[in-house]
Design goal:
Order of helices and strands: EEEEEEEEEEEEEEHEEEEH
Number of strands: 18
Mean pLDDT: 87
Structural class: mainly beta
CATH superfamily: Trypsin-like serine proteases
Shape: globular
Number of domains: 1
CATH topology: Thrombin, subunit H
Distance between the termini: 35 Å
Low-confidence stretches: 1-15, 31-36
CATH architecture: Beta Barrel
Largest sheet: 8 strands, mixed
CATH class: Mainly Beta
Helix content: under 10%
Number of helices: 2
Strand content: 25-35%
């Protein structure tokens, strides 16, 4: 992730495992120069999931939304038998972290997912056993169907994706980037009719998600809670920080997500 970075720390009230309130506070920053990523505070994005293959290779992100469910991108092509959900991960190179590695019992992809247009890029993962909430593992709040997005919202994307569009350097530690939302009209000026009302754009500000961040969260802070607004979906192949990155618009899928969870 390329990142603009102002130092400010966020103070959170204690949480009784409600959604969207990290027990360990994130520290966010942005200065006038672009830096190659910024390490997150360990444990400060407790809903962040690492999706890994049998060899422990991280290939996509995700977000914990309840003890039994994770949301990710359809294009991550999750196979329940071959892939697992890792919670509480921070440093991919460390074997000493108190992670939970959970099998996936079901991967339910949105019925209107279109791999050609990348529209409706959303898959729900049902965990084979429930996540145990800790100070480092807790869920994010889902955007409501009528979620209001306004100028000045503080939004952050997190992941272990490539640190630049050149070369294949990926970080061991979880990266975070503060980035602004981009209006649909601004986004269409860049991407044209590829942008549908099931998508939301962010960045174009000297910061971008990149390959490996796919499926991970775009969260915005509302009051003292963080709300899952987007799921990392697609962007430029070279992670151009002046181009808006595109995310699945979670508010459009709130009803479907709740229906799937209720019936499974």
């Amino acid at each position: 992730m390329l990142l603009l970075s102002l130092t400010l720390s966020l103070v959170f009230l204690g949480s009784s495992w409600g959604c969207g309130v990290p027990a360990i506070s994130p520290a966010l920053s942005f200065s006038q120069r672009i830096v190659n990523g910024e390490n997150a505070v360990s444990g400060s994005w407790p809903w962040q999931v690492s999706l890994q293959d049998r060899n422990g290779f991280h290939f996509c992100g995700g977000s914990l939304i309840s003890p039994n469910w994770v949301v990710t991108a359809a294009h991550c092509n999750i196979s329940p038998g071959s892939h697992s959900v890792v919670l509480g991960e921070y440093d991919l190179s460390s074997k000493a972290e108190p992670v939970q590695v959970l099998a996936i019992s079901k991967a339910i992809t949105h019925p209107s997912w279109n791999p050609t247009t990348l529209n409706n890029d959303l898959t729900l993962l049902k965990l084979a056993s429930p996540a145990q909430y800790t100070t480092r593992i807790s869920p994010v709040c889902l955007a409501s169907s009528n979620e209001a997005l306004y100028d000045g919202l503080k939004c952050v994307t997190t992941g272990w994706g490539r640190l630049s569009g050149v070369g294949n350097v990926t970080p061991a530690r979880l990266q975070q980037a503060v980035l602004p939302l981009v209006t649909v009209n601004q986004c269409r000026q860049y991407w044209g009719s590829s942008i549908t009302d099931s998508m939301i754009c962010a960045g174009a500000s000297g910061v971008s998600s990149c390959q490996g961040d796919s499926g991970g969260p775009l969260v915005c802070q509302k009051g003292s809670t963080w709300v899952l607004i987007g799921i990392v979906s697609w962007g430029t192949t070279n992670c151009n920080v002046q181009a808006p990155a595109v995310y699945t618009r979670v508010s459009k899928f709130n009803t479907w997500i709740n229906r799937v969870i209720a019936s499974n």
